[in-house]
Amino acid sequence: MAEAAEFQGTTAAPACRWARHLMTVLLGVLLLVGLVQLPAAPAARAESPTSRPVGVAIDTVTPVAPTQNDTITLSGTVTNNSGSTVTDAHVGLRVGPQVSGRSDIDDIGYRAGFSPGTDGAELGKHTQKIDKLAPGVSREFSISLPAKDLDLGHDGVYQLGVSLSGRSADHPYEGVLGIQRTLLPWQPSGVEGKKTQLTFLWPLVSATHLTARTEKDQQQTPIFPNDDLAAELAPGGRLNQLVALGKDLKITWVIDPDLLATVEAMTKSYRVDGPDGKVVPGKGQAVAKQWLSRLQTAVAGHQVVALPFGDPDLASLAHRGKDVSGTLSHLQSATELAATTVDTILGVKPRTDFAWPVDGAVDSSIIDVATSAGAHNVIARSDSIREPKASYTPSAARQIGGGNTAVVADARMSTVFQGDLIRADNASLAVQRFLAQSLLVNRQAPDDERSIVVAPQRMPTTSQAQAMAAAISGLSDGRWTTPLDLGDAAKAKPDPSANQQVPGSGSYPESLRAQELPTEAFQEIQKTQSTLDSFKVILTSEDRVVTPFGSAIMREMSTSWRGDRNGAADFRDAVQSYLYELTRQVQLIKKSDATLSGRDATLPITVQNGLLQGIDGLRLVLESSQPNRLKVDASQPVKIEGGHRQTLKFETRANANGPVKLTARLYTDDGQPYGEPMYFYVHVTSITPMVLLVIAGGVLLLILAGLRIYLQRKRSAARGTADGGAPGGEGNGPGDSGPGDDRPEVPGDPAPDTGSESTDPSGTGEKVDR
């Protein structure tokens, strides 16, 4: 084609040849440059966003919020994650740019690669040399420097990085082999403007540990399914740490009263289900006493908010339970019991006008249910009630109508302590992120006094609680925040620009909805409540049953069952089965078939009370399937002391022979059946053939006597006519009796309708009293 182009006689052919030659020369030059620069390629790979042969972990930053005169220390570890030894290595510090907004914090600490433009230059005077780092080996580092050497600018939040630079077989030229970043809140001088009022909720909530089961003794010794709670209360345990850390913090305690009641039960003698099915003594009595004593000291002088007893799942109630009749009444009872429990055990008057849905997620139905029991303040979260202006964080309080207030916790600050914080570097980063967020919130509107609420996860782990405490302590100097109780935060003046619209039901997160208790759970709860209502009316000491089972029903609705449907179902079954077992302690003693050997007899029916308390308010009803054959008394009252039996006797009257089915059943005074009916047969043999013969003979005699009288009167009338007499005329009057007149005989008394009592055996059945 080139030759063809040349033969065409055009001027383009020489130009094309010249262009091809020029391109060849340029490619050669570029290739030469590439070969010369090729050795620098390993350093470029070390700085790529995805390459991180050495892991860097920042375990501590002290102080967490330094001032101008402080000395900052960063310590941690470096780990060789590659397959080759790292040599000529050192750890250095790098100051990145000032963080401009709250959303920029989200990624800091999780980027893997190194970027000179954003990570900043190394502070050459503050490095630490690291010896050879073999594959898989870790080394600790600690670098200290005066805060002024960081050369930070205005108040704000800065990115602070720790990098490891060195070389290895895979990276023969020195470069950054690993880096980790953290955040440094920087406010060396006093606050510019007004401080942010900060409310931090300190939750004291645990899973459900106690059912309604007790020993069969007067003390009603509780039986726990396990002794796991004792480990949480012991030194080093989760609940122990929450109390030990919280006592020195400026926080608002949020407590589930069920936890207090459960621990209080452990301070006395209690029992635990053993692995072999036997019940053994519990071992947590001492730690339970100690924990309650320390908690009483810790909450003194602090505001205490009591959740409804058992921490009922408000979202499940709103979405699945409110349509089940009677369910919402449990929420009211749980709220009332909360105040009494906290006051009795801790000796403080708690606030019970706050509701806390799971993760602060709300919709209109949740608000309605939460406020139905008197909680006019609902703790929500800003990722549920969102702000149209993402760059500004308004005060927590929002007026949502009906005299109710939504206290909207800050989502970023509330969720920063979630996840695995057992590793020191994760915990340290969480603390720095929290402090950085709090400072950026203050700097958004430094001239406005705002109230910010932090509502962390309901049941923080020990490591999470320790990180939370470290973060709150970092704000103790009050440079840009000041502590505030939750009650005061709810009364704070709402920001006029804040969103006050409660989201609709369609906005509720599907992930949370999938964890809710199903409707069937609330139906089973109401079945248990109905059984309890029928049982308590016959008890002389109903509190012994109503109190433990009422508490157990509240626990069946607990938020702690989220994500554990099988565990929740097993708990409900256990409560219902135990209640049914107690109701069966009051029952009719099985009666065998009986033989009635006389027309009138007495049938005994025995009722047993296996409870430790007396029963009253029952009636025993005995019904005959054939009243025309066997008639019985209607009913008799039942009243039995605990552990005793009562035999009631029913009068019967037989009218005919044969088997008759009888039904004995207990009823409450209001006519509701109690327990299962008992059936048995009575074989009537008192109407014997001899008695029937006597009765038949008597009837025959009466008929013959009447016939004879009739014939005699007919003959007398015939003779009177033959003698010329006429009725009503002359002759013998009706009172006269002439010669030859046959006077009718008067029949005697009929034979008795009962024969002598049969002396024959009554058969295999029971012989009744006479």
From TrEMBL:
Superkingdom of this protein's organism: Bacteria
Q: Which UniProt keywords apply?
A: Membrane, Transmembrane, Transmembrane helix
InterPro entries per record: DUF6049, Ig-like_fold
- State the Gene Ontology BP annotations: carbohydrate metabolic process
Taxonomy, top ranks, is: Bacteria, Bacillati, Actinomycetota, Actinomycetes, Kitasatosporales
The molecule here is called Uncharacterized protein
Its transmembrane ranges are 690-711
The keyword Transmembrane belongs to this UniProt entry's keyword annotation: yes
Ubl conjugation as UniProt keyword? no
What's the source species for this entry? Streptomyces albireticuli
* Disordered: region residues: 483-512, 718-770
Task: Point to the regions of Gly residues compositional bias.
Answer: 722-738
